[in-house]
Task: structure prediction
Amino acid sequence: MTGHRIDVGGAACPRANIDGMSETTSLPGGTWPLGDLTVTRFGYGAMQLAGPGVMGPPADHDGALAVLREAAGLGITHVDTAGAYGPRVTNQLIRQALHPYPESLHIVTKVGAVRDQQGGWPPARQPKDLRRAVRENLDDLGLESLDVVNLRLGDAQGPRPGSLAEPFETLAELQRQGLIRHLGVSNATAEQVAEAQAIAPIVCVQNMYNLAYRRDDELIDDLAGKGVAYVPFFPLGGFTPLQSTALSAVAARLDATPMSVALAWLLRRSPNILLIAGTSSVAHLRENVAGAGLPLSDEDLAELDKIGHHQG
Result:
């Protein structure tokens, strides 16, 4: 297998310039460090490349490969995936499309859930489950070490309270063995984030968050102060697309789509927010990149900022 470089250290990673581009990328939002790795704040989420219900192969295999290659061609260096997608389908597509990976490309994956025959996402967080999941990710992606592994907690309804000590300590041990470079958590409560940080350093938290769902506002600001990335999943609302009169009004004023405004707002919300908007279309991927770079005035931001505060 060919893997990423496994040296640790190097020069400090550039922080993002949230009002424009960094010196190292033409993508909106610039870059952010994940530990000793640097990624573009505009990333790509591979979940939609699997078949219907995130099960089975894509209807258009070549089209899926084209989207991944377009993402890399645009300069995106952060690709989000999981072994449960397909299952194992998106990881195999990533390998087919992009391996051997450029030194700048970093793949972030998740463990802690599997798929059942009904398309559910039952938890799989026993030590043996996690070791198997890490090995499968390594095999399917063609890597010797995974850049970032997030421990998925909670369930399909959201985070659930409870200790993550046993599963997270298992991942920390795999990190010490050199199979994982950096750790993160997903679908986690603020208390679980703190518990994870007491066990081993984390470089990212991946939770549901968007313009209308703002429950992690305080957590985002806390993580920003610590240099930890926050990666919102369902940044456009997921299975229930964002709908808001205020959002539509701002979009109409800017002659843009509501989704473009929502992505641009996320990049402006905090410099540690990384986008992983997913799509199975090359054209839609390009639209998302262009939309995330939409300039928003202070007036626009103030109007948008009111949308989700009642849920905070």
Remarks:
- Strands lie at 31-34, 37-40, 44-45, 78-80, 106-111, 146-152, 180-186, 204-208, 229-233.
- Residues 1-23 have pLDDT under 50 and may be disordered.
